[in-house]
Every structure is written in C-alpha cells, then in structure tokens.
Amino acid sequence: MQAKAFEIISNRPFLSFSIWFVGCFIPFAWIFHNSEASTLSITIAILFTFLICTYFASVLTNGLVYMWLSFMMIINAVMAVLFGYFYFAFFTAMFIGRIRSTVGFYIMYGIHLGITVGSILGGFFIETELYIQQIPYMVLVVFGAILGPFYLYSRKQNTELEGRLQTANERISELSVYEERQRIARDLHDTLGQKLSMIGLKLDLALRLVDKNPDKAKEELKDIRQTASMALKEVREMVSDMKKVQLSDELYQVEKLLQMAGVNCKIEGDRKLYDVPLILENTLSMCLKEAVNNVVRHSGAKHCTITVEQSTKDIVLMVEDDGVGLKTSINESAGNGLKGMNERIEFVNGKLMVEQRHKGTALIFTVPLVIVYQEG
Question: What is the pLDDT of residue 334?
Fold first, then answer.
C-alpha cells in the first residue's frame, strides 16, 4: 500500500521513483550551491519534514491525512516564497488525488490550488529574476497541480468500480450456480420422486400377490419395469440438457480476466477440443480457471502463456507465467489450490506437474484419452 501511495505513473515504479528523485532533490542543487550554511540547514530540515509528511499522508486513511496534507501545503508555500522552490506542489497534488472522500478531495484541491498560485505570485515579486528563469518549470508545476489530482482521482474511482463490477459478477456466478443446483434438485424430485414412490408401492403389492395371484404379480412387475425405464429416460434427457463447460469458453473467460488484471495473455494451440468426454473437458476447464486465478492473485506476473495440445493419446494443458514462482510443492501447498487441482486431475487418471522456470512457474496438466464415453 505504501509503495502504491508514492506511485505517480501506474505500473511504472522505477519511472515514478525517478520523478520523485528529480522533483525533490535535483532542484535543491542550486540551493546547496549558492546558499550559506544556515540556509542549507533550513532547507535540509524542510526537505526531511516534507518527506515525513508524505510518509504519514500515504499510510494514514483517517482524518489525520488532511492534517499532514495541510503541513505539506505550508511547506510548499514557504519554499516558494523564501527560495523560489515550488516543485513540492506537484507531489502534494498527487496525494490529494488519492483522497477517497469526494467532499474532502474538492476542499483540499481548492485550498492547495489557491495556496500554490498565491505563493508563486508572492514569490514572483520577491525573487522576480529567479522566477523568470524558472517560468517553463513553473507552468508545468501549475498544470500538474491542476490536472494531476483529477487524473488520479478518476483513475482511483475507475479501479474501485472495476473491483465492484468484478465482485458483482462473481456474486452473480455464485447465484447462478445456486439457482442451477436448485433447478436440478427440483427436476430430480419431480422426475424421480413420484416414480420411485410408485415403484415402491408396486413392489409391495407384487410381494403380496406373488403367492396368491402370480399372474397379477407378473403384471405389476412389468409395470415396475416400464416405470423404471421411463424414469431412466427422463434422467438422461435432463442430464443431456445440462450446460457443458467447454474449454474454449473458459479460455475466453480467463483471457478477459488476465487482461483486466493487467497481465499480457498469449494462447497457443487449438482452443477447441475434439471428441473429448464431457468429464475430461469439465475437469480441464476447472483446473484452468483455478490456475489463472492463482496467476492473478499471487504471482505478480506480467505475462501468461496458455498452451493447449491434443493428440490421439492425451491432452496437455500448460499455464506458464513470469511471476514470483511457487515456494511450496503440491503436497505442502495449503492455500494456492494446487491440492485441489491435483485431486481433480487425478480423478480422471491425469497428472499435474509443477515446473519452476528461470522466472515464474509452469503448471502442466496431462490427461489421457482412455475414457470411453457411451450413450446408454
């Protein structure tokens, strides 16, 4: 969280640090070069005070953040009037852009803009020659103080909205699964409940008639056989209507997820599987989803490559990233889903291999095409 607070350009930590270094330290060179010892002591003290203020402004999330931002504005004004150093205004604007409250944002933005313009105008009359030399930089700082907070504030709002949208989509998916389970339960109850009850009653009747009236008992058994056949047919029809999770659909979903997370996704091989049993394709789809979730949540990767290879003997699915890598084995893993993926793949006689690369990790799922699928 602290690192993100000092981030000026998204996903460019080195560039952000460079801007901080140039903005905070390089302009001090002329002060160190031309000032007396007493002035140097004051400027060094002000510099470290400003850095302390930025630290607390980045780590605090309550109302105290406004106090530290106010201190930063005062330092901006003092440096601009006394030394013609107005560059701190740009960095204060970056912190104002991270305020969550809309009212607080606009209040601090207005105060900061007024103090910045006022201190620059005041310093211009005191150190006119110095300010004339810095007019190009002064224009850049003022524009940064005006536009920078709005850019960061809008980006923060968009990030929060994307997070809420993703949460809502996950909730919708959970509700859809729950509703599908409820529907299946209702269908099973309606399909099997009545017919199983009928079979039980007719069996009781047939048992009573087997000695007294064998012919009537045979008729009841025929009815039982017919009822059971009807129930089996209805169950098969219901199962065939259930949605099949295709690997091609799951590849499309995880590709969107990776793009949303800022991870460059590359898919190699044929997205569609041919003549593959439903249970194999469902298992591979679930393993793919879990593997990509791990890449997004834990790896810190920038690139992810998904490879699908189907032969006459097996299917190989590989998910490779350039992240931090895994520090545990499948048996030692507790929280990254490796055990769950391994259990799923072993259920269909498959195998999961985890390979540590020079940078990142590769999960390789291999499933043999030996299951014979027959329509009964």
Answer: 47
Residue 315, SS3 per DSSP: strand
State yes or no: pLDDT of 352 exceeds 60: yes
Q: What's the DSSP call for residue 269?
A: E
Of the CA atoms within 13 Å of residue 300, those in its CB half-sphere come to: 6
Buried b (16+ CB within 10 A) or exposed e, 74-104: ebbbebbbbbbbbbbbbbbbbbbbbbeeeee
User: Which one-letter DSSP state was computed for residue 246?
Assistant: -
**Nearest CA to 356 among 315, 322, 333, 308?**
322
Radius of gyration of the chain (CA): 34
**Helix/strand/coil percentages in the chain, nearest 5:** 70, 10, 20
Model pLDDT for residues 274-305, shown as the tens digit of each residue: 888 877 888 888 889 888 888 887 888 899 99
Token pair listed for 337: 């889903």
pLDDT at 111: 86
Residue 130 main-chain phi, psi, to 5 deg: -65, -40
Average pLDDT over residues 27-52: 68
- Residue 317 has a pLDDT of 94
Q: Indicate the pairing of strand 361-368 with strand 314-321.
A: antiparallel
Global model pTM greater than 0.85: no
Query: CA 289 → CA 15, 120, 292, 294, distances in Å?
Result: 34, 55, 5, 9
Residue type, 312: T
